[in-house]
Amino acid sequence: MDYQLDYTDKRIIDELTKDARISYLELSKKLNVSNSMVHQRIKKIKDAGIISGEGLKISPEKAGYKSCAYTGIVLTEARFCDHVANELEKIPEVSECHYVSGKYALFAKVHAIDNEDMRLVLYDKIHRIEGVSSTDTFMSFQTYFDRELKMIEE
Q1: Given this model, what pLDDT does residue 30 score?
Q2: What is the pLDDT of residue 126?
Q3: How far apart are CA 45 and CA 59, in angstroms?
Q4: Structural contact between residues 36 and 27, judged by C-beta atoms closer than 8 angstroms
Q5: For residue 136, which of 112, 104, 109, 99 has the smallest C-alpha distance?
Q6: Is 102's pLDDT higher than 60?
Q7: What is the pLDDT of residues 122-132, one digit of tens each?
Q8: Into which CATH architecture does domain 67-140 fall?
Q9: Which of 36, 53, 68, 73 would bridge 140 by S-S if both were Cys, CB 3.0 to 4.6 A apart?
Q10: Distance CA 62, CA 18 (A)
Q11: Alpha helices, DSSP H only, in 106-151?
Q12: In whole angstroms, what is the distance from residue 54 CA to residue 76 CA?
């Protein structure tokens, strides 16, 4: 669906980015529009794939994951890219996977209970995937910020 966002849509998205739990009624009052308009607009925005879900954002640290790393993955052959990405998706500790340019074919964000667990995830899970040649892992010591993007103003 090719849906063009207007000013009201962008205001709705901006408010939802600030507080995803805001009620539609509160949102309609804040934006001075009808409650039904908020419902309709959010449905259209979701149907267009501009926003998705209403899930919770879990803090990895509070969930028990003390180690976080970014892992660059070198493939034996380019044809393994989709296969490796599909296998990475099956590993619960891998929260993100990106197809990238440069030395690595894939870049993954990996969470682990501690550094020993990180070693096990890397060597007993990731390195055993057919098509993985090698990895370079960059430990994250602290996240300064992690935020949703704002809508681009035209």
Answers
A1: 93
A2: 98
A3: 27
A4: no
A5: 104
A6: yes
A7: 999 999 999 99
A8: 2-Layer Sandwich (3.30)
A9: 68
A10: 22
A11: 115-120
A12: 38
* pLDDT tens-digit series, residues 12-40: 988 888 888 889 999 999 999 999 999 99
Neighbours of 24 (CB within 10 A): 15
In the chain, where the domains are located: 7-47, 67-140
Q: Cβ(9)–Cβ(45) under 8 Å? A: yes
Mean pLDDT of 111-118: 96
7-47 — its CATH code?
Answer: 1.10.10.10
Name the strand (E) or helix (H) holding 110: strand 106-112
**Mean pLDDT, rounded, of the chain:** 91
CA–CA separation, 113 vs 93, rounded Å?
A: 9
What residue spans of the chain are helical by DSSP H?
A: 7-18, 24-31, 35-47, 81-89, 115-120
